[in-house]
Specification:
By secondary structure, the protein is of the alpha+beta class. It has a domain of 229 residues: Vanillyl-alcohol Oxidase, Chain A, domain 3. Helices cover 30% and strands 25% of the residues. It is built from 13 helices and 19 strands. The strands form 4 sheets. An 8-stranded antiparallel beta sheet has the order 15-12-14-13-17-18-16-19, with helices on both faces. Strands 6, 7, 8, 9, 10 and 11 form a 6-stranded antiparallel beta sheet that branches. It has a 3-stranded parallel beta sheet with strand order 3-5-4, covered by helices on one side. Strand 9 and strand 10 form a beta hairpin. The protein is globular, with a radius of gyration of 21 Å. Bound molecules: flavin-adenine dinucleotide. Flavin-adenine dinucleotide (FAD) binds next to strand 4, helix 3, strand 11 and helix 8. This is FAD-binding oxidoreductase. Keywords: FAD, Flavoprotein, Oxidoreductase.
Length: 456
Amino acid sequence: MSTLITDGSRTYAAEAAALVRPRDAGEVADALARARRSGTPVCVRGGGYNQGGLGLAEGAVQIGTGGLDRILDIDVAARTARVQAGVTWDRLREALDPLGLSPRVTQSYGVFTVGGSVGINAHGRNIDTGVLAATVVSLRVMLADGGIVDADRTRDPDVFRLVLGGLGLVGVLLDVTIELTENHEYRKSRVAVMPTGEYPRVLREVTADPGIHFHYARLAVTPSELWDKLLCVDYRLTPGGNSREPVRSEPLGRADLLKQRGLFLGCTYSAWMRERRFGWEVQHRARMETVRRNNVAKESIQALSIPRRRSGYWLQEFFLPVENLTAFLDAGRAVLRAADFQLLNTTLRFVPRNTDAFLSYATGDRVAAVVYFRQPLKDAAIARTVQVMRRLLDEALALGGTYYLSYHRYATAGQLLRAYPRIEDFFRYKHKLDPDGLFRNQFAEQYAELDPERAF
Ligand SMILES: Cc1cc2nc3c(=O)[nH]c(=O)nc-3n(C[C@H](O)[C@H](O)[C@H](O)COP(=O)(O)OP(=O)(O)OC[C@H]3O[C@@H](n4cnc5c(N)ncnc54)[C@H](O)[C@@H]3O)c2cc1C
């Protein structure tokens, strides 16, 4: 019996031929062997939070990694952890906390799996490290033929680089060894409102300051002040800090949840609330705090998980060279205003250069601009959003930018090619490792046969 599965955007769906939940490499091998024999494609799903149908393919066997949930080793001296792919960041941080350790890359949401984060090469608000790929020491992946490759930067480096941000198309990641750091203490050292034009200078100062490990900015999104000003937040290391603060995981406290829901989603329907939103956000974030790395800049996924039948909450993310950020925001503001497109939020983050992943989105230092909005799930409304996002992407591409593959697949093949010039090589390599196309998802179905003129 087939089962209908949707992704995190509630837009993309597929009938799965079967759902399997292996607990070890042997069970993954069995699932792949059965799929090969029956000629059924396979796709892999961690938490399923991506918004691009990356864990979906029609009629595929879906491998859920929830059973691969063991922390295999924590080497305190070497500061590394080897974990199975289905372990979530919350679970890992709970295990590391008593040891005074923390992952080097910290996503704001703890519910994502380590495997799913490797699969899209996630990044956090920490500016001391950058993308997750930079902290992956080695990984073990099962390829389409059932063989296991133990890869790092010197052993099977091509496989290593393809799996990082490989969108589940290269193989099933079994386990991964990542670098850790101390569960440092930080002090929120700056909460400042400034005109957007000042931000590139401030960002240069922030990134040159070795004491600031976490940093982000929130742009005003009300129609009258759209992207004109922003709120900038820094966290500074407090050397030798000895505060005690146990790790917090989902579900976060009720008060926090209500506050975050109110801030984000209360503004969805009320223009009056939207106009006041930026002021509330400043108030909400202004509280100075001392916080441990395992808790810093954490948000609650529950605050965003309000089920609605007719709408979803979508993200899009653009990566810009730092020097072109202001030009992108100016051009993007005009696009959004012309379309009367209402955002719920825009966050800026710094992503230092890293090219470990084959499909790197940070081939130089980048600022990530993450936009968040409520999306009515009607065809006409989706078509309108696609047009707006394509225009924003055109502006980003013209300024040497790119976009994140984790979210909606609105980009034309031509835009994808410009954003990821190595995408054709990626599919060629994949074909070499997986000649029968066992690993499939909707991204590959849309883009593997690249025709720059083809839109979906
Ligand atoms: C509200 C929200 C906030 C977000 N914030 C951030 C953020 O701060 N920074 C950021 O970088 N991203 C962010 N994301 C994106 C998020 O990191 C990705 O969607 C991530 O993939 C989610 O992890 P997951 O476990 O749900 O992965 P999934 O969505 O299940 O999988 C993601 C990809 O990895 C592949 N995959 C999963 N497990 C394996 C495996 N074991 N082997 C091989 N391939 C595998 C899948 O096939 C898929 O292609 C956010 C997303 C949402 C919805």
